[in-house]
Amino acid sequence: MDNTREIEALIELMARLPGLGPRSARRAVLALLKRRGQLMAPLAQAMATVALNARDCTVCGNIGTADICPICADPDRATGEICVVEDVADLWAMERTGAFKGRYHVLGGTLSALDGLGPDELGIPRLVRRVADEGICEVIMALNATVDGQTTAHYIADALTETTVQISSLAQGVPIGGELDYLDDGTIGAALRARRRL
Amino acid sequence: MDNTREIEALIELMARLPGLGPRSARRAVLALLKRRGQLMAPLAQAMATVALNARDCTVCGNIGTADICPICADPDRATGEICVVEDVADLWAMERTGAFKGRYHVLGGTLSALDGLGPDELGIPRLVRRVADEGICEVIMALNATVDGQTTAHYIADALTETTVQISSLAQGVPIGGELDYLDDGTIGAALRARRRL
Ligand SMILES: [Zn+2]
Ligand SMILES: [Zn+2]
């Protein structure tokens, strides 16, 4: 291939995005090259801005552009409910339903000795402290309906037994083995409304 | 959705890339957010560099980062052959085969009254001048095997009848209705070797 080095380097980086292989990365870069003023320059600028400013919320683990994410910073969301999710993608999926008005705890994974993910890595002690400090009355487990997700949910429920908080989990609507981020918004909303005590 | 404004803006721009819809753009941005140091910042930088430096080659229409693209600037490629392609993607596809050692003329489309693409927009007078000025002995039509592609190839052949240049076209291997950029490299190479006079 006889592209100039800079264009090759861009294609190689684009190919590392999920859902883009070498061929689709090439097509994407070509589309950008043809619209370098209207699309490529603004996209590069937007990406640089986010890369510079993005950070994990110190309270919940959501990704935003401030130390406290917009959800944690919003006083209208202090509803006494914390929704526990595995990943920021799951938080986004919950938010798209508009069905949940509380705050979140993003684990960043599930318990896994293999991946070196223990309670500390998932922020579970921090979650337990929040339950006491923020006067939380309900913790809603919105973990994936996988073995790892449910094992982690039960571990968290055990860690919270010394508090008086009510613990529930998303119930009907989440298919076995399914992942939240792939579900339609209506299904997630229904599962939230039909949540059951753990 | 409760992402911060900058992240939303980035997702919207990413969703305008070919092959990425709103959902896959979100997933791509999330993957970038999780690797903002190792991937997002370098990608933003690479994209900004290319957006700033990319330009159309004044000789052939290829996109590079200089006024003359690497292919036109390479003295080893002055073989007396010009390969005419519709699009930069097709030039890249030809280059991946490694089968062609000459230079290119990128039309940037096919003749289309509807799209306002006439001979001038496709640089056909410039191609005719190059044939004389560069001592070209063969013009190889590597246009898509579509009606528009073949109509344009014949128009170019007519425009070149006053020169003595030999005109050929990619022959076997290009399926009817097929587009070069989707073909495997071997097929394109075979079609090049088996080119026939037009
Ligand atoms: Zn937060
Ligand atoms: Zn050139």
UniProtKB/TrEMBL annotation, chains A, B:
Residues 80-175 form the Toprim domain. The keyword Cytoplasm does not apply. GO terms for biological process: DNA recombination; DNA repair. The keyword Transmembrane does not apply. One of its GO terms (molecular function) is zinc ion binding. Belongs to the RecR family. May play a role in DNA repair. It seems to be involved in an RecBC-independent recombinational process of DNA repair. It may act with RecF and RecO. Keywords: DNA damage, DNA recombination, DNA repair, Metal-binding, Zinc, Zinc-finger. SMART domains: TOPRIM. This is Recombination protein RecR.
